[in-house]
């Protein structure tokens, strides 16, 4: 097995070695390195610098040094390292005005503090500001340079290797991912790091980043605020684009979590990064084109938004409503790039506007030839005015020569717009936070105690506790997570006539308020995509109107659904209802299924045709009975009336009148009294009626039995016995009715089950036994009467009315036998009509069969109404 010796920059192992062998070789190599370090330290106890020094882009000496890490450039030149020689320093390209402005804001704050007699009197602050070049690796490298220093350590044996930190605090970096790497590296040194623009919620974890603080709110609050904003405008079907780093991934994760809680669905969620190949960004554009959502939530850094907008411009993808994060929503540079008005009408969260008096003038007063940091200022000046200084290595013949006295007042670009003043203010507040902490540590009053040994950890502890107001009245403090209060302005992009975008504040979001009051939109007109005045609609489906409910589609997000009409008896009175509410039993759904209307109450009333006909029949029967009674009374002395037991006849006519009238109690709305009256009156009057018929039948039988020799039957069934029999039979029914009413009387009842859209008002029987006992007793008397009448049918015709009684009882029994199944099977008011019809039919049967033939003889055949005719041949001598 061959082992190749590799250069010092690395050690290669043969791929054919087993895993155990590779680990053994690594362990042995590590042991050798440790032994070599121990021996060399024993022989030569001198600290030596390894690697090239890092020179700050801006620096100034002072009693206390502050560090700064900003990205003066957006990119660097790619190179292929061969690992055959030491890699060359990173070559940064594409000057970034933003990073230069951040550094200028830090310089302004330091100069203001140094000129102040109230804060740190007699103490001068210096600075070392490095260029991270938008590289995480370079950011870590310069952070270590700030912590350790770059000077060459002498070989004197008295020089210790362990020295105090070179800077007491570090301002920066701008993005979240570099801050995470830098905070991890400098954490063990306890050096405070205050960022002005790193918003990832992950940086609030003090177990991982104990020395990290920031003057910009955490994305935890911004992501939730964006979700609430999307919900406020009714957008439930949105697309999402994020930066593929810690800032975008963590921010979008919180947004998605909150959006799901608020019922918002994402049609797609894609990521981009500024170094992505064009093919990947083209795929993102294709996804946007193929989507149905009209709202795009862009949780992007300004650099990635630059790249995405550059790729979107050729496609002219207008008509989409953009919702942006604070990183780009108020960036005038992004607005300047949007020549095709793709982002017109965008809304989003921005850091509240700020004004720091004197800062704008300080930044615009920059002069490259007057600066000690000539290199970066020279490059800035050349980029700003597109010229070259004579001594510049990159000067070309096509560019004009820079004089250093060019006038900035005529320049209009992202540097002079100062749209990022809120972020500059964050840097300003961060520097002042360190100054106030130092002021407290040094016990400054009129002078400061210079004998205090400064320690970064001590400064960190004081920064966490500080609370002060800036000269503009902004309150500065940090919570337990090292974050400030979360408050945002809601920005709306409103294009003006000259083509410049106006960032209009249309509301605020304050995370310190209760959840329902955090979002506060002002009464300002918003401009939407394509300069529209109407709020865009972005839904997977149209909203389900009242009267329908949402039913989820299988395999799709909850925002995609079908709208099903509510079933009968159910309603939904709100838009996008997920359920239909069942109406109360007394109500029913209307035709649109959006309201419950009171059910129609159904009962047999006098106004309807059927009720009117039955009422007419009842009154006709009553009148007819009264007429018959009048005829009988008028001709009461005639033989035919006297021969047919006039007393029972009048009682029968009276009971028939009651029978006709009691049917009226079944008509109209049931009430407690009408329910008890209708059944008891019906039962008692019919028993009285049949008792009279039964008495007449018995009288006929007894009368003819009395004509037989030696018969003495009539004395046992004279008028007194007839009255007592009728009274006795009726009293039995009265007792049954009293027991029924006492134990469980009939009562009014609303029947909701028999008809789905109507309330059947009826009389519940109470005790079914009582009801059927009343009917049964009537039936027993009717059958008994029918049998006796049937037995008396062959008696002499002229005197015998048993034949008519037989017919009347036959009709009575037939009617009530058919009544039972018809009553049970009839719905609602028709069962009441069947019962009334049975009462009237049986009453008319009795009246017609028993009394009409006699009235015919009295009125039409008076010659037959004689005593001789009643006696006939062979008739007895006396009645």
Q: Could you please describe the fold and organization of this structure?
A:
This protein is 42% helix and 15% strand. With 879 residues, the chain is α/β, with parallel strands linked by helices. The chain folds into five domains: 46 residues, no CATH class; 226 residues, 3-Layer(aba) Sandwich (Rossmann fold); 175 residues, Rossmann fold; 52 residues, Tumor Necrosis Factor Receptor, subunit A, domain 2 (Ribbon), CATH 2.10.50; 262 residues, Rhodopsin 7-helix transmembrane proteins (Rhopdopsin 7-helix transmembrane proteins), CATH 1.20.1070. An eight-stranded mixed sheet has the order 10-9-11-12-13-18-19-20, with helices on both faces. α2 runs parallel beside α13 and α17 packs antiparallel against α18. The termini are far apart. The N terminus and C terminus are likely disordered.
């Amino acid at each position: 097995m061959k082992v190749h010796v590799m250069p010092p920059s690395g050690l290669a192992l043969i791929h054919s070695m087993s895993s155990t062998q590779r680990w053994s070789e690594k362990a042995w190599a590590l042991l050798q390195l440790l032994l070599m370090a121990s021996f060399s330290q024993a022989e030569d106890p001198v600290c030596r610098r390894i690697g090239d020094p890092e020179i700050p882009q801006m620096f100034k000496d002072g009693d206390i040094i502050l560090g700064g890490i900003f990205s003066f450039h957006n990119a660097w030149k790619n190179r292929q390292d061969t690992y055959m020689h030491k890699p060359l320093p990173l070559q940064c390209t594409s000057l970034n005005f933003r990073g230069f402005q951040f550094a200028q804001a830090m310089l302004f704050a330091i100069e203001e503090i140094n000129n102040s007699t109230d804060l740190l009197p007699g103490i001068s602050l210096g600075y070392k500001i490095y260029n991270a070049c938008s590289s995480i690796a370079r950011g870590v490298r310069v952070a270590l340079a700030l912590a350790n220093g770059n000077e060459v350590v002498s070989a004197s044996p008295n020089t210790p290797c362990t020295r105090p930190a070179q800077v007491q605090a570090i301002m920066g970096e701008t993005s979240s991912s570099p801050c995470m790497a830098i905070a991890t590296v400098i954490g063990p040194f306890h050096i405070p790091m205050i960022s002005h623009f790193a918003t990832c919620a992950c940086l609030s974890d003090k177990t991982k980043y104990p020395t990290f603080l920031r003057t910009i709110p955490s994305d935890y609050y911004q992501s939730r605020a964006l979700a609430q904003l999307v919900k406020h405008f009714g957008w439930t079907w949105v697309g999402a684009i994020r930066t593929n780093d810690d800032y975008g991934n963590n921010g979008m994760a919180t947004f998605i979590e909150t959006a799901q809680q608020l019922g918002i669905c994402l049609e797609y969620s894609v990521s981009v990064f500024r170094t992505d190949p064009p093919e990947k960004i083209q795929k993102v554009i294709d996804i946007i084109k193929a989507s149905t959502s009209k709202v795009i939530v862009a949780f992007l850094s300004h650099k990635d938004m630059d790249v995405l907008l550059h790729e979107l411009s050729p496609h002219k993808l207008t008509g989409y409503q953009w919702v942006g994060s604070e990183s780009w929503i108020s960036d005038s540079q992004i607005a300047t790039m949007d020549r095709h008005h793709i982002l017109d009408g965008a809304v989003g969260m921005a850091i509240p506007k700020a004004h720091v008096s004197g800062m704008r003038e300080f930044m615009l007063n920059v002069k490259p030839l007057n600066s000690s940091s000539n290199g970066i200022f020279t490059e800035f000046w050349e980029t700003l005015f597109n010229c070259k200084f004579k001594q510049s290595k990159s000067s070309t013949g096509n560019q004009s020569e820079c004089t250093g006295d060019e006038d900035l007042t005529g320049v209009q670009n992202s540097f002079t717009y100062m749209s990022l003043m809120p972020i500059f203010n964050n840097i300003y507040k961060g520097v002042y936070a360190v100054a106030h902490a130092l002021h407290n540590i040094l016990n400054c009053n009129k002078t400061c105690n210079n004998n205090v040994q400064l320690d970064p950890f001590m400064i960190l502890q004081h920064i966490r506790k500080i609370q002060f107001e800036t000269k503009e009245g902004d309150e500065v403090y940090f919570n337990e997570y090292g974050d400030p209060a979360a408050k945002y302005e809601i920005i709306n992009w409103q294009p003006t006539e000259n083509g410049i975008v106006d960032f209009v504040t249309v509301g605020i979001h304050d995370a310190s308020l209760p959840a329902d009051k955090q979002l506060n939109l002002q009464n300002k007109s918003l401009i939407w995509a394509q300069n529209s005045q109407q709020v865009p609609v972005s839904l997977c489906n149209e909203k389900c109107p009242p009267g329908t409910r949402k039913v989820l589609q299988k395999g799709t997000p909850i925002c995609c659904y079908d709208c099903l009409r509510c079933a009968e008896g159910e309603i939904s009175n709100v838009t996008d209802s997920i359920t239909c509410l069942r109406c109360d039993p007394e109500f029913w759904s209307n035709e649109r299924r959006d309201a419950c209307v009171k059910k129609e109450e159904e009962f047999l009333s006098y106004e309807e045709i059927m009720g009117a006909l039955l009422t007419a029949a009842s009154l006709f029967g009553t009148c007819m009975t009264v007429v018959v009674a009048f005829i009988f009374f008028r001709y009461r002395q005639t033989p035919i009336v006297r021969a047919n037991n006039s007393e029972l006849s009048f009682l029968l006519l009276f009971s028939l009148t009651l029978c006709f009238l009691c049917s009226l109690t079944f008509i109209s709305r049931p009430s407690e009294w009408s329910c008890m009256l209708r059944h008891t009156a019906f039962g008692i009057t019919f028993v009285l009626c049949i008792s009279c018929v039964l008495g007449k039948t018995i009288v006929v039988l007894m009368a003819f039995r009395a004509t037989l020799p030696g018969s003495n039957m009539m004395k046992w069934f004279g008028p007194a016995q007839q009255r007592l029999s009728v009274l006795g039979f009726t009293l039995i029914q009265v007792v049954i009715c009293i027991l029924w009413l006492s134990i469980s009387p009939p009562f009014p009842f609303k029947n909701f089950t028999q008809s789905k859209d109507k309330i059947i008002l009826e009389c519940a029987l109470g005790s079914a036994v009582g009801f059927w006992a009343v009917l049964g007793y009537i039936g027993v008397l009717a059958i008994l009467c029918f049998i006796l009448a049937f037995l008396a049918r062959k008696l002499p015709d002229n005197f015998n009315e048993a034949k008519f009684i037989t017919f009347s009882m036959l009709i009575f029994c037939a009617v009530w036998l058919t009544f039972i199944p018809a009553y049970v099977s009839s719905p609602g008011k028709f069962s009441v009509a069947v019962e009334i019809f049975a009462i009237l039919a049986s009453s008319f049967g009795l009246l017609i069969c028993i009394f009409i033939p006699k009235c015919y003889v009295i009125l039409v055949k008076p010659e037959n109404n004689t005593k001789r005719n009643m006696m006939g041949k062979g008739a007895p001598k006396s009645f």
